[in-house]
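Can you give me the bound-state structure? Components:
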Amino acid sequence: MTKKVGSQTVKLANPPVLISAAAVVGPMEGQGLLREYFDYIYSDNICGQASFEKAERHMVQNACYLALNKVQKIPKDMDYFLAGDLLNQTTTSNFSAVQLEIPFFGLYGACSTLAESLSLAAMLIDGGFANYILAATSSHNCTSERQYRYPTEYGGQRPPYAQWTVTGAGAAVVAKEGTGPRITCITTGKVVDMGIKDPFNMGAAMAPAAAKTLIQHFCDTGRAPTYYDLIVTGDLGRFGHDLTVQLAVSGGGFDLSQNYQDCGVMIYRPDQDTHSGGSGCGCSAVVTYGYLLKEMAKGTFGKILVVATGALHSPTTFQQGENIPAIAQAVAIEQ
Amino acid sequence: MPMQNPKHKQRSQEPTPEQKRYIEMVNRQKPKPPVFKNVVLAFLFGGLVSIIGQALTFFYMQVLDLSPVEAGGPVSATIIFIASLLTGFGVYDKIAKYAGAGLAVPVTGFANSMTSAALEFKREGLVLGVGSKMFVLAGSVIVFGVFSAMLVGLISALI
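Here's the bound-state model for the whole set.
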């Protein structure tokens, strides 16, 4: 029996369950709009560590143990650990895996890693290859800004469409059986290059990928956007959100205006001076594992579609004048 | 300041009609920076730096008994010191956010670009971190500054 529907979507035969999740964030996110939903808020960006890289690692491990503790599990109970982050050679994930001692797959999907890790975890479980999987995603403002842009203390003006990399980590335990919302459908995106070159304009680079994955998801499943109580994209920001709404109409005639939001817009208060909103792997991770799953448990949302978007460029490709390719991965989570 | 290699830019592929349409759509809709506000603030902050520089010039002329030209050296050094100190305290970037070109164009911008890079990479050690990464942003200014100074010097020596 094939589980594939349409050209890019799979419908899981026995939908795996998100039995537990945890989100930890830095101080700035802790002052944002969703502060009461996070499991742990660090009082500073360095988290008591010797470097920001170690701080990011600390956040990942903290999120993993918090998620495991909620269902009284230990790392040994997990069959696989799937993790990804933004740093070169995904060091945060690799080094975190040393401590956890769980068979490990390292992922890189830039900011789409949240949905990428959930997609693969759900497929592994539904395929019968695992019973429990730990999936983690993280980003840190101070580690990624220095890699992608400027030193943190460099003084300059950012364009109004620029975004702010979220400091945060999210982890979830996906299981074959249990209580919690289930991952029912997965639409895997294709890499899209729409000719955007400006590394400050991530929203514009990723919006076409988000729109294409969304349209493909609706076509493959036969669902309308209103099937979901909420559709969220990962980190398009205000400008990218607006572009996605337009592209969904022009590309497939789908009206997203009713129930579509963006994690990057949801996380910060408008007066926090982040310009277009949040970005980074951590953005969709902490909003999904913090806010969305907790609201689902309360019954606010029954069915959500999480579309995490990633800009797949590097400082090298940018300096050599290449476009910014982007990807979007969609995961349907239903109560 | 992230700079693209212009040579590569020319060589890179021409956008497809679909990409062209999308780029035009993005450029049409993208939020515009508040140019007027930025220009006014840049004028005020740049002016403030200049006033401080002038005051310091008078100060060094009086105290050290220097000519206006000779006072230029200690004045630049003092301004560089202040900008670097503010960078170290984590204040500079908060002011520069409003000041924009007003702080980026004077020597303060140069001081900040070096100090911020030195701070950022101090965990990579003195040699591979601070020593080599300090010039990550300022390096090209030094290279082309020295080169143009050499050219101008050569021309002035010939005429």
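A couple of observations. Chain A has a mean pLDDT of 95. Residues 202-221 of chain A form the longest helix (20 residues).
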